[in-house]
């Protein structure tokens, strides 16, 4: 197995495999490849945080936590199945149709795991931000007349 | 022999006459423009003017310089009618857009402020600030290409808004406007700046983390509307 194959496998991997436990190809590779091992470690860390956070999710969300969640979603997007399933209770509770994150500047940690080449805000907003700023876009199902755009420093 | 020469000459004459008769008859018309300048109008109608038509080339000319509002076209009557229709369709005033701004402070108030009711109800769904209050508001108007700025007073803090309307598309109900907007203040510098497409009547709410520890979070709501002509 080589490193280019691991992202797809990580989409469906069990947490134990990401920890390098077991005899699967992925687990063996994560054990022996420092780069993929580090990537798996980051996913595990975010997964733990997300699990803890969602267990405390309330009907409305402090902005820092919402942004943190948005960042986590962005970083973990390639692990889309588990993350998006997990995020549904929060989105419903918070009345959010979507949280989309994009980048005015470069974020190397994010770029390592981002699914596409250039993260984009969707739905025709075609947003441009200052360099060094990240942005989360909140669209609400019940309020199509309003779109909320929140800026924060890259790396906040 | 002589008869043959006469016949050939007659045929040639008929051919030339026929060729001349096949050239379309041209007419000349001057159009007075209300909003378009002659340069833009000339670009617009260029495809309808056959400047390479043999024997009857169409022409476009302007009175004086290209920024004048008179344009004279020599073309066939049919094409002149088409050109008239095209010019009538596009020689329209640029849509005037009003941008309604509200500068809102988060955590600034625990009671509900009716002047920001719409925005506040959406923000309360998303964030857990204690409350919101309106610091200042303004309405700026312009057309595509307009740059505008306004200083806004606040309680102990001044703000400024800069906006550039980049493009306006569609009508009052289904159109969009692309604009660049920034919120700034002397003690703060630029709080944020962005460029975005927003639907007419939709409110874009812009916010950021606190500009300084001494200040509360600032939010700028902006809603574009096309003014009725």
Q: What's the arrangement of secondary structure elements?
A:
The complex is a heterodimer of chains A (156) and B (229).
Chain A: H1 6-12, H2 15-18, H3 25-32, H4 34-55, H5 63-75, H6 80-94, E1 98-103, H7 108-113, E2 128-129, E3 133-140, E4 143-153
Antiparallel strand pairs in A: 1-3, 3-4
Chain B: H1 2-22, E1 27-32, H2 38-45, E2 59-62, E3 70-75, H3 77-90, E4 97-106, H4 117-126, E5 132-142, E6 147-152, E7 159-169, E8 176-185, E9 189-199, E10 203-208, E11 218-226
Antiparallel strand pairs in B: 1-3, 2-3, 4-5, 4-11, 6-7, 7-8, 8-9, 10-11
Question: In words, what does this structure look like?
Answer:
- The complex is a heterodimer of chains A (156) and B (229).
- Chain A has 156 residues and is of the alpha+beta class.
- Helices cover 48% and strands 17% of the residues of chain A.
- Chain A has helices at 6-12, 15-18, 25-32, 34-55, 63-75, 80-94, 108-113; strands at 98-103, 128-129, 133-140, 143-153.
- A three-stranded antiparallel β-sheet of chain A has the order 1-3-4, with helices on one face.
- In chain A, β3 (133-140) and β4 (143-153) form a beta hairpin.
- In chain A, α3 packs across α4 and α4 (34-55) runs parallel beside α6 (80-94).
- Chain A starts with 5 loop residues before the first helix and ends with a strand.
- Residues 53-64 and 71-123 of chain A have low confidence and may be disordered.
- Chain B is of the alpha+beta class and 229 residues long.
- In chain B, 23% of the residues lie in helices and 39% in strands.
- Chain B has four helices and eleven strands, in the order αβαββαβαβββββββ.
- Chain B has helices at 2-22, 38-45, 77-90, 117-126, and strands spanning 27-32, 59-62, 70-75, 97-106, 132-142, 147-152, 159-169, 176-185, 189-199, 203-208, 218-226.
- A four-stranded antiparallel β-sheet of chain B has the order 5-4-11-10, with no helix packed on it.
- The longest helix of chain B has 21 residues, at 2-22.
- Chain B is elongated and about 85 Å long.
- Residues 12-20 of chain B have low confidence and may be disordered.
- Chain A binds chain B through residues 58, 60-63, 66, 94-96, 124-130, 133, 135, 138, 140, 143-153, 156, and chain B through 118-119, 121-129, 176, 178, 190, 192-198, 201-209, 217.
- β4 of chain A pairs parallel with β10 of chain B.
């Amino acid at each position: 197995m080589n490193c280019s194959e691991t992202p797809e496998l990580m989409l469906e991997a069990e947490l134990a495999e990401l920890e390098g436990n077991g005899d699967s190809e992925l687990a063996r590779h994560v054990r022996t490849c420092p780069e993929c091992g580090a990537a798996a470690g980051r996913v595990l860390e975010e997964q733990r945080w997300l699990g803890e956070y969602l267990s405390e999710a309330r009907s409305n969300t402090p902005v820092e936590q919402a942004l943190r969640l948005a960042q986590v979603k962005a970083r973990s997007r390639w692990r889309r199945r588990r993350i998006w399933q997990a995020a549904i209770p929060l989105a419903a509770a918070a009345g959010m149709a979507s949280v989309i994150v994009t980048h005015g500047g470069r974020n190397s940690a994010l770029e390592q795991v981002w699914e596409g080449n250039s993260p984009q805000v969707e739905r025709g907003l075609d947003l441009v931000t200052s360099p060094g700023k990240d942005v989360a876009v909140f669209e609400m199902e019940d309020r199509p007349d309003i779109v909320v755009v929140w800026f924060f420093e890259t790396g906040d | 022999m002589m008869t043959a020469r006469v016949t050939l000459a007659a045929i040639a004459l008929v051919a030339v006459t026929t060729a001349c008769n096949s050239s379309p008859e041209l007419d000349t018309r001057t159009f007075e423009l209300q909003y378009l300048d002659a340069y833009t109008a000339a670009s617009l109608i260029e495809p309808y003017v056959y400047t390479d038509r043999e024997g009857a080339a169409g022409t476009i000319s302007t009175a004086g310089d290209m920024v004048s509002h008179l344009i004279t076209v020599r073309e066939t009557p049919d094409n002149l009618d088409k050109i008239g229709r095209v010019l009538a369709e596009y020689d329209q005033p640029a849509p005037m857009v009003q941008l309604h701004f509200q500068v809102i402070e988060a955590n600034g108030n625990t009671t509900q402020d009716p002047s920001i009711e719409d925005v506040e109800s959406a923000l309360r769904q998303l964030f857990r600030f204690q409350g919101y209050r309106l610091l200042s508001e303004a309405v700026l108007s312009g057309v595509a290409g307009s740059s505008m700025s306004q200083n806004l007073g606040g309680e102990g803090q001044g703000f400024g808004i800069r906006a550039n309307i980049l493009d306006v598309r569609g009508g009052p109900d289904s159109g969009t406007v692309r604009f660049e907007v920034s919120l700034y203040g002397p003690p703060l510098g630029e709080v944020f700046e962005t460029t975005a497409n927003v639907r007419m009547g939709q409110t874009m709410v812009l916010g950021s983390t606190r500009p300084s520890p001494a200040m509360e979070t600032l939010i700028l709501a902006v809603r574009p509307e096309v003014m009725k002509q």
